[in-house]
Design goal:
Layout lengths: L2 H11 L4 H8 L13 H14 L3 H16 L4 H15 L3 H14 L4 H13 L3 H14 L4 H13 L3 H14 L4 H18 L1
Length: 198
């Protein structure tokens, strides 16, 4: 078994971390989430709402608010590096963007979105092992990161690891159950695996 698949398995079969359990027990209304003093508290409240929301449009709004929280590193310098990296990516200056993401991660190694954006760029560049490595960092910092889980599922599907991809989509849907695309992907892989078994 390759080392990156071992890491994937470790992440997917790991028990739910305390942060995820806290999201299940959060009782503060989402409307008051902006008034909560820490980003962690705001995220816990939003994730609790995301898990309970059955309406896909409302869930998308909550997911967008979560993404907004993730974008703020708490450092003006890191935020600026991330903006420059995004611009470099848009203008197809990928090596520049990669360097900027590297700098952001060096300055803020616990900043989840630095790792996530670099994982996305590696994926776009076809560097799947590096992308998977960054995804594992993302999920170690924030196991509820649905974007990273979707990226993991895509890489595993492309590698023909359908059972692991199904597991990644299952984790995604535990966090974000109302996402229609994830439901479709999960269903397609489940049908494919069922067909392979008959």
């Amino acid at each position: 078994m390759s080392s990156y698949l071992f890491l994937v398995l470790a992440v997917l079969v790991a028990p739910t971390l305390p942060a995820a359990r806290a999201a299940d027990t959060a009782t503060t209304p989402a409307a008051a989430s902006a008034e909560l003093p820490t980003q962690k508290q705001r995220l816990d409240t939003l994730f609790s709402e995301l898990k309970k929301t059955g309406d896909s449009d409302k869930a998308k709004d909550v997911a967008d608010r979560i993404r907004t929280e993730w974008q703020d590193s708490g450092s003006a310098s890191v935020n600026l590096l991330m903006q420059w990296a995004a611009k470099a990516t848009e203008t197809n200056k990928r090596s520049v963007a990669l360097d900027l993401y590297d700098q952001a991660i060096a300055l803020a190694p616990d900043y989840v979105e630095g790792w996530n954006q670099r994982a996305t760029l590696h994926y776009q560049m076809g560097n799947y092992r590096k992308s998977m490595s960054d995804i594992n960092h993302v999920l170690a910092l924030e196991p509820r990161h649905f974007g990273a889980l979707a990226g993991m599922a895509a890489i595993l599907s492309a590698a023909g690891k359908d059972e692991l991809a199904l597991r990644a989509w299952e984790e995604f849907l535990t966090v974000y159950p109302a996402d229609r695309k994830a439901q479709e992907q999960f269903g397609e892989i489940e049908e494919k695996l069922a067909g392979n078994r008959t």
